[in-house]
Amino acid sequence: MKPLQIALLGAGTVASGVVKVLARNQEELQRRAGRGIALAAIAARNPDKARAALGDALPITTDFMALATRPDIDIVVELMGGISPARELVLAAIAAGKHVVTANKALLAIHGNEIFAAAQAKGVIVAFEAAVAGGIPIIKAVREGLAGNRIEWIAGIINGTTNFILSEMRDKGLDFATVLKQAQALGYAEADPTFDIEGVDAAHKATILCAIAFGVPVQFDKAYVEGITALQAADIRYAEQLGYRIKLLGITKNTGEGIELRVHPTLIPATRLIANVEGAMNAVVVQGDAVGPTLYYGKGAGSEPTASAVIADLVDVTRLHTADPEHRVPHLAFQPDAMSDLPILPMDQVVTAYYLRLRVADQTGVLADLTRILADEGISIDGLIQREAGEGEHQTDLIILTHDTVEAHMNAAIGRMQTLPSVHAPIVRIRKEELR
Ligand SMILES: NC(=O)C1=CN([C@@H]2O[C@H](COP(=O)(O)OP(=O)(O)OC[C@H]3O[C@@H](n4cnc5c(N)ncnc54)[C@H](O)[C@@H]3O)[C@@H](O)[C@H]2O)C=CC1
Ligand SMILES: N[C@@H](CC=O)C(=O)O
Ligand code: NA
């Protein structure tokens, strides 16, 4: 049988991994897929740069649209990133009857509904294992391996760049900017690294996980997104003293009333496996009603780890190429006519526990004022530490851990506490999850 013909759009970090691994594992892949997978051509903005990175064995074109719709191409692999022209190219490839493999979580989190509907109508596959947690087969696990479960929640370290930054800052005492530059040099960061550090990339991935876990459309616009740029070294230290680690988590949870979809720095008990995931590694915990918690760990970024997921999709598509579209795994795990309309909950309805740090006057009565406000708002305290004021210091740090409460109540309490004359700086609030 003639090998399936692949067109690669983009010639950057992930594309170069795909070219290398496809060449290296060619024979093994043919044995797995039942037929050959052949790279036909690459579209690159800068052919000289592409040739320098990928060699000159393959034809390179600058006409992305012509390649994406070329009659002899069976599968288009989109590894450019960004929304436009990636969206137009993917839709054109689908309209031309091509299967698509993409690592582009931004595109799918924002335009996934349109893209999956177009693919469904045309009877082609859009495969996206590389879009979430890079090389970890989490899409496969949630959509297929856990299909017997009602998924209750998913929480994951799904951005390698920020986990690398937090780990290096904590372990080596390096500053934020230095570590971010290292992450960029290692090929972990997005083309625009603010997507990583502001939590947007993790929110794109959480949006996709949310859709395949609960059978709802992708709704990135409803995600709560908070990154790590405001995180202070003092809070990482206090968290350690209290037996917690701070990680940027993507969380999605079915509460029955609606679905939580949020990304923010989170205190998690240091004894949890996921709290000990360091560097650019990713880890995702999925809680199913039947199986309980399962944990998936591995490289979430980088050239060959991400290529591993892209190529797994190529093998899948090659195997399913001739299958009746009705017998394929649905793009969002649930049949398109059986999607749920459960709403994504606004952040002020989310229930979680909190770590609060207050810079307060070192005088009597302060604690009583603060605990009264928390009690008024129905918030109960789980623990409290007060750093001894140094000699000559008139202020001190007060750390309060709370039990679960509704975010709206916490907003009200923080608003009131902030107006007290004895509270001297903006109150730091970090959400806390036990993950059990
Ligand atoms: N680098 C990583 O570790 C991972 C990346 N991804 C995703 O994979 C995709 C590719 O990422 P990388 O390879 O890291 O990016 P990259 O920046 O290294 O490569 C992107 C390639 O696409 C080309 N390109 C970008 N915009 C273009 C445009 N408007 N017109 C023509 N060519 C354009 C660039 O010239 C470059 O050749 C992105 O969607 C990214 O989010 C997903 C998982 C991990
Ligand atoms: N920039 C992303 C790359 C993979 O998705 C990350 O750091 O995780
Ligand atoms: Na993956």
UniProtKB/TrEMBL annotation:
Enzyme Commission number(s): 1.1.1.3
Residues noted as binding L-homoserine in the record, renumbered to the chain: E190
A single MF term (Gene Ontology): NADP binding
Sites where the protein binds NADPH: K105
Keywords (A to Z) from UniProt: Amino-acid biosynthesis, Metal-binding, Methionine biosynthesis, NAD, NADP, Oxidoreductase, Threonine biosynthesis
Top-level EC class: oxidoreductase
Annotated pathway: Amino-acid biosynthesis; L-threonine biosynthesis; L-threonine from L-aspartate: step 3/5; Amino-acid biosynthesis; L-methionine biosynthesis via de novo pathway; L-homoserine from L-aspartate: step 3/3
Cofactors (names): a metal cation
InterPro entries linked to this entry: ACT-like_dom_sf, ACT_dom, Asp/hSer_DH_NAD-bd, HDH, HDH_cat, HDH_CS, NAD(P)-bd_dom_sf
UniProt similarity note: Belongs to the homoserine dehydrogenase family.
NCBIfam families (UniProt xref): PRK06349.1 (NF004976)
Protein's UniProt name: Homoserine dehydrogenase
Lineage: Bacteria, Pseudomonadati, Pseudomonadota, Betaproteobacteria, Burkholderiales
